[in-house]
Amino acid sequence: MSTASSQSRGVNRRINSLQNDGRHSRNSSLSRRRPLTPAIASSHALRVAYLTYLLHPRTRRIQTAPAAPARPKRSSTSIHDLMSDFSLVRDSKSTRIPHGFVSELEKRLTGVLMGREKKKEYQDHLVVRTFAVFLNVLKEDSFRKRMEKDRRAEDLLLIFYSNAVKELSKGKEQEDDSWKLMVDRHVALFVRLLALILKSNDWAKDRPELANRLTVLENKLLLQDQDLMDSNGPTSTTEVLAPLSYDVKDMPLVQHVAKIFGMTTLQAQSEIDKHKSVWTEKAALRDLKTYQTQLSLHTRKTLCREDFETDEAFESWKKSEGPDLSQMMLAIVQSNPELAKSTPGALPQFNASVSDDLSSPRDRTSYAIDQSVDFSSLSLGGADGDSEESDTYTFIPSDPRGVYRFILNQTLTHDLRDREIEASQATSDTPSMKLLSKQSTEMLNEICLRWRIPNFSRIVLFLDVIQSKYVDSEIDLNTLDSAFTFVKESPSSEPRAKRSSYVASSVFDRRKWSVHDLQTMQQLLSKIHEALLRELYDVMMDCFEAKPRPIGPVMYILEHHIQMDPNYTEDPADIDRFSSYVQDGLAQKATEKYQSLIGQLIPVDQESWRFDNVIQLGDAISKLAQKIQKRYRNNPEIMGYVIRILLLEDEV
After folding, report:
1. Which of 91-95, 265-269, 331-335, 376-380 ranks highest by mean pLDDT?
2. How far apart are CA 190 and CA 196, in angstroms?
3. Could you tell me the superkingdom of the organism this chain comes from (predicted)?
């Protein structure tokens, strides 16, 4: 307990210094923030849900159209253009194909030849013919050994490109250049096959630069895809991205936000249509770029050194922000390549030294990438560092913590209400205790990701909402216990895709928390402790009843979730006062019970008293004492008192 008290004193000193600093940060300047209303919270939740829809990978579909009688010549991709995407890639592990890749490629190529490749684009007879020619080259011992030694993806592309040119140009007239565009398509399909092999063998996350370059190269090769004609028929086919409908019925997260805030589908659709021109991918990219600038310039509009107790804690948080921001910006650019074209230098160069996975424990809904890239040169304009925060960002509110807590409270209220319905239908195989639904967890993950709310803040804000609901009697002890178990769930105990909790391992390392979160954690633990003592008192006062409430659940939460928490500080004076209340209350209840037994077993008329009456009274008290001893055998001593002894003392 001395360690916790020492930690608490350090936190309090830091909090006082923050309050006296008068600086501007995300946690201050409360006076200029607008009052938080359900309309503001629902609007910001809708923005994130809508952005998730915009960034969600779209399906590809084959589109068939009548062949035009004549078409102008279009330039195809030259070999120089083809390899330019690899010229900027650093020669590192992340750019080389993995060991065993050539063998997997041979298997997939054989599958194309045998018709086992299920994707329709690989069933075209011209594609099969081109792939067969390359497979023969791949099986040559000299080429295979060289590939397994050097493991350079560009060598595979060069050989495939040259063989595709030879094969598709056979029998063509000199003025017929349609086959050149077909080369682009076949090379694009080959590049896609390489990317599929990386993904199916779980190699992409270890080689983010290679995976990204393959994606960029495929998109470049398919720019002319609409001009590729089927030489054997009067129709042309093109593979296009399915267009966005902008209909709320196709936006599951938007529907969920509307349900949580009591909005109709028409109201949500009207809100989306009204702000569709503002809530764009470009605005999301600008938000991230502005946030990155604020972080780099130490403007204190993000978390800063003063928000942490140690340099190590601050550097740990700041270091995790860089890869997250880069990956999020890259995901937006990949979903909308036009954003990259509008900036000088196309896609920025990769930073090979940063390739960590995103630190938040989540199910990735809007994208799934592991690349890290330097977007410092990406300029979109419109981000004035001197403007107010509420005007600077489109998707990030001026008070992210406050708005997130409001949304979390609303979401928990909604899901706990639904949980009560589900609980009545629970079976032995289906648990009835569920705090947050899958869609709610997905929505909260996206909000925290977009608003840059750290993992430790998510934990604290979640428990703070739980604390409020428990103190206000909106949830019971079982739900309170489930909430603490929920956040303590080990992130490594199950695969990421199956985790029900959205918190990370930072729950186990309080040294990396912000001072504000440490103080909030200390306060919420104190409030829960006080409420639990009130409940414990009520439960203990029922101990002499025939069917009292169990005391175990309250004691378990007190001992395991509150008193064992490193941020809990105990005031001996408060405990002494509570013990005094318990002693007085139990003594009074014991007296009442003793008087009740006397009234039942001892006649009112003293002349009717007999020695048997005294014996019966003694037996009744003894049986009650034995019953209490058996009832509380797991908790024989509560707050320093033995209930059975209090009863016997009152008898004496």
Report:
1. 265-269
2. 10
3. Eukaryota
